[in-house]
Amino acid sequence: CSCHPQYKMHTDGRSCLEREDTVLEVTESNTTSVVDGDKRVKRRLLMETCAVNNGGCDRTCKDTSTGVHCSCPVGFTLQLDGKTCKDIDECQTRNGGCDHFCKNTVGSFDCSCKKGFKLLTDEKSCQDVDECSLDRTCDHSCINHPGTFACACNRGYTLYGFTHCGEVKGL
C-alpha cells in the first residue's frame, strides 16, 4: 500500500494522512473522501474487500462499514484471526448426543449403534433389534436380550450352532 505524494502513510500502515492530520478514507461506494482523523471510521482501505480474495475469509465474507466480516457455516467455528474456519468436533461434547458411537465428519458428525441395535429416526438414539420377531430366527424358542438373542430347544433336542435344534438320540 502506498500514498499519493501529497500524503504520508499513517502508522496503521493502511491510511494516508494529509498535512493537517486528516485521513483519506474510502467510502462504501469506493470513492475517496477526507475525514477528520479523530472521527474517522476505522476501515481497512482498498485492500480489504470481499471482492478481492474473498476478503481473506476462509468461507463467507460480508462487506460492512467497518471492513470485511468473515463467518463460518454450521459445524465450523471462526478462529481468533477472524478469518479462518475450523471444524467443530461435536463428538467431544457429550458424545455428540449419540447413544453409542459418534464419528466426527467435516462440518458435521454421524452416530452409529452397537451390533444388535438400530439407529432411530432422530439419528442419535439406538434401539435393541428384537431378532426373535424375525421369522425363523430359531428352530424352537428364541429369547431376546439387549443387543443379542439366544435360541433354546425343546426337551429331547439339543442346540447345534446358534439357531438349529437336533433330536438327541438314545433318550
From TrEMBL:
Localization: Secreted
Cited InterPro entries: EGF, EGF-like_Ca-bd_dom, EGF-type_Asp/Asn_hydroxyl_site, EGF_Ca-bd_CS, Growth_fac_rcpt_cys_sf, NOTCH1_EGF-like, SCUB_EGF-like_domain
Keywords, sorted A to Z: Calcium, Disulfide bond, EGF-like domain, Glycoprotein, Repeat, Secreted, Signal
Pfam families registered for this protein in UniProt: EGF_CA (PF07645), FXa_inhibition (PF14670)
Annotated signal peptide: none
MF annotations from Gene Ontology: calcium ion binding
Domain EGF-like: 128-166
Family matches, as Gene3D superfamilies: Laminin (2.10.25.10)
SUPFAM superfamilies cross-referenced by the UniProt entry: Growth factor receptor domain
Disulfide links within the chain: 132-142
Chief location: secreted
Cellular component GO terms, alphabetical: extracellular region
Protein's recorded name: SCUBE2 isoform 6
